[in-house]
Design a protein that fits this description.
This protein is mainly β. Helices cover about 15% and strands about 40% of the residues. It contains four helices and 16 strands. An eight-stranded antiparallel barrel has the order 1-2-4-5-6-7-8-9. A four-stranded antiparallel β-sheet has the order 13-12-10-15, with no helix packed on it.
Length: about 260
Amino acid sequence: GRTPTSYLDLHPDVLGARGAEGDDRLALLLAAVFAAVAVERAEARVWGFAPSGWRNLRIQGQRQTWIDERTDEHHGIEYVIDPPSREVSAPSGRRNFTRTVDVWVGPFPAPTDDGSLAPDDRRRIEVRLIDGADGQVAIELDGRRRVVDVECRDGSWHASSAAGAATWRPGPRFADHAAELVGSGPVAPLPGTVIAVHVAVGDAVSEGQLLLVLEAMKMEHKITAAGAAVVSEVRIGVGDRVDAGDLLVVLDALDETP
């Protein structure tokens, strides 16, 4: 009763505090990641026996992007989960399942202009996951164990431990190219050759109108407009080779509001 309503105004550091920092905060993020993995595996009726991201010929781990709901920071996470092993936990003798996970944290290496990958500067961590109670993740980072309470709330994952709390949400798995079509323009969905161009600079186009045709993988791919726009630039011509992600036509969106 002795806390005035002006308390937060007088103590702005309270609102600005991030809570857990360093590996304590990373433990909250990884606890959310692997709690989500456990739920996804439990709901997989056919492939639930296989670790998340399992492949016959694995060239990389499972990659995900997670977003801090407080700061909107994006965190790249890549992991490889080993098959479970058993360990006896004293003094009760209860057997716990333990998984070892190799984790890489940081921005994913991106291709440079010449097509080569940039140096991989991510941090690599060895993580151990120990079976715990429902709603808890016992996680060991580089030899230090932490117990994190995890709860899913409307698609976001709230994680808390003795060090603090944080809320994370999974980022989109695939780029939303549709969002790029108006206001910038359509991009090549895969490498190919332009075999037809149906618009010119100054043309007004409507949603679904054919802009151009690409030939790739012995198939024709029709590139259409996502909405009403005016063509301000055509960056390709018939016979041109394009790479995946190349901007093909620049569109200026039209306001259809009456």
